[in-house]
Fold this protein.
Amino acid sequence: MEVTESETRRTREPAPRRRWRALLPLALAAAMAASHAQQQTPPTGLAGRSYTFNAAQERLAATSSGLTAARAGVDASRSSADAVSGLNLPILSVDAQVFRYQKTIEVSLAAARNLVEQAINGFLASSPVGQAVAPVVSAPINNALGRIPDSVSGTITDNIWRPTLTLLWPLYTGGMSDATQDAAQAQARQAEAELASFSDTLGLQLVGAYFGQQLAAQVVATGRQNLDRFAQHYDNAQKMERQGVLAKAQRLQVEVARNAAERQLLRAQNEYETAQAVLTRLLKETSAIEPSTPLFAQSQPLEPVQAFIDSGRGSSPTLARLAGLGDAGQSGVKAAQSLALPKVYGFGSYNFNSKNAVLPDPDWIVGVGLHYTLFSNVDRKSAEGAARAREQQADAAMDQAGSDIETLIVRSWQGVETSRKQFMLLGTNIVAAQENVRVHTLGFREGQATATELIDAQVALSVAQTQRAAAAYEYDLALAQLLAASGRMNDYAQHIARADQRMSAP
């Protein structure tokens, strides 16, 4: 049978087949994008331990070191906030001291001696009696007074046991206590928001890895079906060539297509095993994992995008974290302002062993104190300025994050909707492609269709099947991104449960 030039041109690789070969690596690459790589030998087989998506979530929550660290950070922040919750309350302490002391006491007698001398001399000079006896007593008195020293001293040595109860009550701190408490609460809220944000990020990784492996499984199944069909087409082509109704060139076309389908299947199997290893590492399992929750979609659109925007404004972990940062900035301003204000405190002390106390020590004491720093080695105006700048930084970051999150929500919502429409349209395309393959198969057997036409039809079917699986994967991933951005990641399992479109198991 003579092969014309036009037929020879048709033996070249058709455009649908080239699109198929270009699409396959892209579709398979999505299965590997969900987790950072760790060195581990990938599973060698396609089969593994079955995991529903909910079970995978529970496993990830129980084994993630990052989540454990984030939870510990929340506990630490909450404990720190509890630790400073009583800064405005009094401080009551008990002290006990045992010591030995020595005290030197010196008493001046000169002043007393001078007073006595003046009194005696005045008496002797002013009264008749004094004048009469003065010649007799004056000399002995002066002699006696002259013997009195100017001072006397002594040393006291003793052992003291001093138990005391002390009370210190901050009555007014210039706002420092309140600022410290507010800052601690803000840090706790930041830690909680960071935990929620990390949990959402981890959830996105799980969605990508879990349904990425399901996508890879669908591509493997499609590749296996494609190879089986091309193998059958090749058997038919061989029979037709032996019967003389098919040119060798067309039989070779089918053979090349069959071989290409075999290589694509091998590549798809390798990609599946890689995707399987990614999910296995993410869940810290020792054996391979096989997801049992299929790729899914919803035939009806989601609720309007504005509902997700409103939810994101109130529930976004990113906005919550920045809000906590802003609160911390406000607390910093209050703390800086308190540096320029006085501090008032009440105090009291009671000595339980007052009978054996040091002479100057009181038995008890109560009072009110005032402290004000006249000059500090810290520039208080600069400290306040820095605190206000941090507050402004947090406010600006909050505004920018709000805009970015709204943009992300809109983009994710549109991604969900686009994927949903593509998924539904591709379902119809697959039905048409299957019928097209059936018609061209019969036509090829009857000599009414060329090998090129048959190959194009078969490749078009495989591409449509892969595209539909990829559309479902894109729907699942975009939905997760939408829910995470709007603070509703916990609703993902509900969307899976009520999905009315599911990819059949490979």
